[in-house]
Amino acid sequence: MRFLFFKSKLFSSVLQQKTKTCNRTLLGWGQKKTVENPFLILRAQRQEYGCIMEMMWRFYYPDEPTVASLGLGHKYNPIFDEEALRCLTEGYSFVAKCKYTGDIVGACINNTACPWDPDQLDQMAKTMKDVNLRQLYHFYSYVQRAPLLWQQFGTTKIFEMNMVFVRREDRKRGVCKLLLDASRKFGADCGYNVIRCDATNFYTDKICEKLKMKMIYSIPYCSYTGLDPAHTPLIKAPHPHTGVRIYVDLPFSQHK
Q1: What are phi and psi of 196, to 5 degrees?
Q2: Which residues are within 8 A (CB) of 45 and not within 5 positions of it... i.e. 6 or more apart?
Q3: Is the predicted pLDDT of residue 56 greater than 70, yes or no?
Q4: Residues in Cβ contact with 159 at an 8 Å cutoff, skipping those fewer than 6 apart
């Protein structure tokens, strides 16, 4: 009798458990909720350029390690605006917008680069009166030239994902990854053999890794001293930013 009673209790317990499971499924408890993406990734329009450049002074320059470490993040200068506008007018940039309000929440500024561009950056730097700004542009010239991408991949023009930012209240929501992914795919659609991203901060670095881009060159900040006779590192970025890691995507190449 004890055996029959035990079987009866066991059957009852299993039946109750199945009933609970069935109820949970019927009520939707067992189903994963799909979170709707509240952002749209779109090509930047000419009428949006002014808004993008204004947002860069709030959400890009103050947080960009190479700019902020030299005290240039909150110090307005027209050169940054001129460079941003030059990139924007190429027509390759993207914005992220809230699909409910239409507000721009971030942007990826893209442009093309040719083998002579590093020399032009050096020449531009020599005309700058601000010492820190001049050193920064010499550093940018060095970074652009160092991996020799044009020679390595036999091309005269590459697609650069130059600057990316997201407003602070929308960070850690995947917006930056969406912008970079859309940009690199667009670069490939335009026929560019080499898509480049210089990850100057830790977070962009991790996104490039997630996008399975290839890290091809690295410049630790502590290794670049510029023209300083005392060999003091120019960029003293805060943790966790330790250097520039240069990534490429090679959509049509056997070098993958």
Answers
A1: -120, 145
A2: none
A3: yes
A4: 92, 110, 112, 184, 187, 190, 192, 194, 195, 196
